Amino acid sequence: MAPIVPFAARLYRPLEPYAYTLIRIATGAIFLPHGVLKLFFGGATSTMGYAFGVLELIGGLALVLGLYVRPIAVLLIIDVLTVIAANIGKGWLWTRGGVQYHTFLLGMLLAVALGGAGRHALQKSIEERWPAIGYALARAWFALLIVPSGYEKVFTDGASRIASGNVLKTGFYPPLFWAWVVALLELVGMILLAVGLGTRVLAFMMAIELGVIVVAIQMPNGYFWTSRGTEFALILFIVCLAFVFGGGGRYSLDRKIGREF
């Protein structure tokens, strides 16, 4: 596929084969601290809690290493669905204890369950179609998860709210201008990302936004999502980097057009 900006291709081409692997590793790694917390720091208060702790620690490590990827992903999907069922009454927004974050994890696990280990794993696979399908699902799921936030910012005065809040807090001026950049990126940009058009540019812009959120907004709150820490934005950032590396992938409008950045 012909690059629109040839010099940029020299930067991302060596990383492109590792895009799906990065998604698989990030999805597994996010479970490790929760497994450790449940097993060794009092996070588990029941037999079921300890069972999930073992699953999250050993299963997360297995995904990172690329061992028994599909069955482990299915077991972790059950784990995540249990959390979603327990918190669905709290609504959507993760900042209010809702299911947004675990819905994202569900999508990444579905992508890994479809894609399997991929080429860069201890139990590597030479199949190419299924990792490409998993990658496409991860890209679309990531983007569509963010679209509602963009819709709220564009159509229900959310841009003004973040202009006087987080945008002002991070020091971007004029804040209303940058708030609308964020709003349009999260709505229009993520719709385009979902279909794989302009993937690398949009993913790079989104990675910058997420990096700012991690460092300037959530880092003072610690790591875990339950304290509004960096956990959710951090995995979003890492997965977004995978899209910068891999572009639209086999199943995208970028690939159909035959041109991409």
What would you note in describing this structure?
The structure is a single chain. With 261 residues, the chain is mostly helical. Helices cover 69% and strands 2% of the residues. It is built from 13 helices and 2 strands. The protein has a two-stranded parallel sheet. The mean pLDDT is 94. The chain is globular and about 50 Å long. The protein has helices spanning 6-12, 19-29, 32-40, 47-65, 69-87, 100-115, 129-155, 158-163, 166-170, 175-195, 199-218, 231-246, 253-257; strands spanning 2-3, 259-260.
The best one-word shape is globular
Q: In this structure, how is the largest beta sheet organized?
A: 2 strands, parallel
Distance between the termini: 10 Å
The helix/strand series, from N terminus to C terminus, equals EHHHHHHHHHHHHHE
Structural category:
mainly alpha
What oligomeric arrangement do these chains adopt? single chain
On the 0 to 100 scale, the average pLDDT is 94
Total count of strands: 2
Helicity, in percent? 55-70%
Strand composition percent: under 5%
Query: How are the strands of the biggest sheet laid out side by side?
Result: 1-2
| Tally of alpha and pi helices | 13
- Please tell me how large the radius of gyration is: 18 Å
Unreliable residue stretches? none
What's the arrangement of secondary structure elements?
Layout: E1 2-3, H1 6-12, H2 19-29, H3 32-40, H4 47-65, H5 69-87, H6 100-115, H7 129-155, H8 158-163, H9 166-170, H10 175-195, H11 199-218, H12 231-246, H13 253-257, E2 259-260
Parallel strand pairs: 1-2
Task: Name the features.
261 residues, mainly alpha, two-stranded parallel sheet, 2% strand
